[in-house]
Specification:
Radius of gyration: 20 Å
Oligomer: single chain
Number of strands: 2
Number of helices: 8
Number of domains: 2
Length: 208
């Protein structure tokens, strides 16, 4: 089955978050990557997957990712385990400091070799709302949902696809036949803000 074609917004999102992941991991490359003989895709995959764990932990409001089984009979592996335990809080901190505006989770990442060099191939999950954010007192009204969608410039079908819900469900919300719960409403608000920010960034990139 052929993969579904991604919209320019989705493609730009994947590219932007891939670059952001590489960026937060860059200070730790010497601990994991050895390019002395050839491009070390294995080392990069390990580092970027650790970065992915830290990225998602930051989205959920954690300041660290506990590392277990630090003792290993191989001294080199034990050194790497301990180094990783030291690096995790710093990776989480870099995500929070450098990219606080991005709330999409990363589902998977691996390094692939392209003509331009090593490149992260990632797949994204949904937006993770910070547990620090307060829940709305009630579900969004049809007028509020329509206003959020229109602020993104997306059609109902496009907005529903980006949200990961059926178009019929969004239509029911916008028509007042059904009402989203407080958690769904929090997600819709966060998603709307994220899409507006992404579109601004995409416009800047296209004008450069």
């Amino acid at each position: 089955m052929a993969a579904k074609k991604k919209s320019p917004l989705e493609s730009a999102r994947i590219e932007r978050i891939g670059k952001a992941l590489v960026d937060i991991c860059s200070p730790f490359e010497s601990d994991y990557i050895d390019d002395s003989e050839e491009s070390d895709t294995y080392g990069r995959t390990i580092l970027w997957r650790l970065g992915m764990l830290a990225w998602n932990a930051a989205l959920m409001g954690y300041t660290d990712v506990p590392m277990h089984n630090l003792e290993d009979p191989d001294p080199e592996r034990e050194r790497l385990f301990r180094k990783t335990a030291e690096n995790m809080p710093r990776l989480v901190q870099r995500k929070n400091e450098l990219y606080p505006q991005i709330h999409f989770a990363i589902d998977s990442v691996r390094c692939v070799l392209l003509k331009k060099g090593p490149h992260p191939r990632i797949s994204l999950g949904t937006i993770i709302c910070s547990p620090k954010d307060t829940l709305p007192k009630s579900g969004l009204s049809p007028k509020e949902i329509i206003s959020i969608r229109e602020s993104t410039g997306l059609t109902s079908a496009e907005f529903a696809k980006q949200l990961g819900i059926a178009a019929k469900r969004l239509s029911a919300w916008e028509c007042g036949k059904e009402k989203p719960g407080v958690l769904e409403s929090k997600y819709i608000r966060e998603f709307g803000k994220e899409i507006c920010w992404e579109q601004t960034e995409l416009a800047k990139e296209q004008n450069d």
